[in-house]
Amino acid sequence: MTAFFDLPVRRHEVNGIHIAARIDGQGPPLLLLHGHPQTHAIWHRVWPELTRRHTCVAADLRGYGDSDKPAATPDHAAHSKRTMAADMVALMRVLGHQRFDVLAHDRGARVAHRLALDHADAVGRMMLLDIAPTLDMYENTTRAFAQAYYHWFWLIQPAPMPETMIERDPVFYLRSVMGGRPGGLAHFSAEAMAEYERAARLPGWATGICEDYRASATLDLEHDRQGRAAGERLRMPLRVLWGERGAVGRNFDVLGLWRAVADEVTGGPLPGAHYLAEETPDALLREVAGFLGWDGRE
User: Fold this and answer.
1) Minimal CA–CA distance to 248: which of 276, 214, 273?
2) FRET pair for 199, CA 20 to 30 Å: which of 5, 22, 65, 271?
3) Is the pTM of this model over 0.90?
C-alpha cells in the first residue's frame, strides 16, 4: 500500500460540487469522514491497517479541505447534514460502491447519522466517534457543555462576525480549537498539522465551517425533529465510541441517547479525549476489528 501522505487527493464531481478524497486498499468499501476543524488526514495513523482490510474512501466534507466550498445560503441548506450526506452517497456510487460501512468522527459523524437515516439501504454497519445525537446535545446543553463546546454557539452567530475573526488568523483559530482539548497539540503529527493548517488558509474555509454549524443549529434540527415524529430510527448495527477524558461522555448519557434513536447500539469510552483516531489509534483499531469482523481473518 502507498503511504497515506503520498497518495494523490482526487476531486470527484458529485451532487453539483467537487468532493476531494484519498482512496486506497482492498476489500469491502469503508467510507471515512472527518470532523471540525480538520480534514480527512485524521485517518492517517489507522490508514495502513484499515486499507489491509477495506477499500477505504477518506473524503473531505464540503466546506472543508480540498472539497468545494459553496456559498452560504439564507436557510443554510447548502451545508445541511442532509446535503452533505447526499454528497457522500453520490461519491461512493461514482466510485462503484452501492453499499458500504462507515467510520466517522465529530462533524463527519453527524453527516453519517443523517446519511444512515436518509439512505439506510446504502449502509451496512456504522461506527461513530465522540458524538451524541445533535438534537439531544442542543436540547440538553448545560453550562459545563457550553463552556467546553463554546464554538458551537460562537460559530452560529450571524455572518460575517465569526468568519471575519477566523479569517484574520485561521491557523490561530485552528490551533486554539485543537489545542484546547486535553493533551493539547501533542497528539498530532507534523505532517497532519501542516495539512490542517494549509486547509485552514484556503479561501472559503471560514464560511464553510460557520455554515456547517449554523445548519446544525437550525435546519438540521428541523430534519431531526421531523424524523423522530415520523418514527425514524437507525436500523443497522451501530457502535459509538467516545473519549473518556472528553466533554461528550462527561455531559451526556451517550449510549442511552443513541439507544433511543437506534435499534442495535453498542459502544463505550476509549482512553482519549476527542481526536480518537490520532490520540488512540491502536485502541480504535481493536474496536474496528471487532465491529467489522476482522478477528481471525487475514
Assistant:
1) 273
2) 271
3) yes
